[in-house]
Design a protein that fits this description.
The protein is mostly helical and 132 residues long. It is 80% helix and 0% strand.
Length: 132
């Protein structure tokens, strides 16, 4: 398995973490009984941390299909190399840093880190679209 595919695997693990984190904190807000119910009644308001974690999750899920497709296209076309490795690694590293920045409400740096993840994605696109 290539390093890019391994990075993709770790990115999917991060996505799983980002599914469970808001659920965990929401469970703390509403209680287990409510979460195990049909949830027909009113619930406690969503807390700041839970809301931020949900938005961070949605943000990852907006670019995750692009990242998956890019890594798979690089692999299928056997165009792995330094640029694809650094692009995939930059995407994952930025997404790992982005999560706590968003959770703790850090404004400007969060956006800079998000831009770094997009640069990683663009590096993969470059590998795919550049002439062989």
């Amino acid at each position: 398995m290539t390093t890019e595919l391994t990075i993709l695997g770790w990115t999917l693990a991060l996505a799983l973490v980002q599914i469970f984190l808001p659920s965990y904190f929401r469970n703390q807000e509403t209680g287990t009984a409510y979460n195990m119910s049909a949830r027909d009644g009113a619930s406690a308001p969503v807390g700041k941390l839970t809301a931020r974690l949900r938005r961070a999750q949605a943000n990852l899920f907006e670019t995750l299909p692009l990242f998956i497709a890019a890594v798979l296209m690089v692999h299928v076309t056997a165009r792995e190399g330094t640029l694809s490795l650094w692009g995939a690694a930059l995407f994952l590293a930025a997404r790992l840093i982005y999560l706590p920045l968003y959770a703790f409400g850090v404004p400007v740096l969060r956006t800079v880190v998000w831009l770094a993840s997009v640069v990683g994605l663009l590096m993969l696109f470059w590998v795919i679209l550049a002439p062989a």
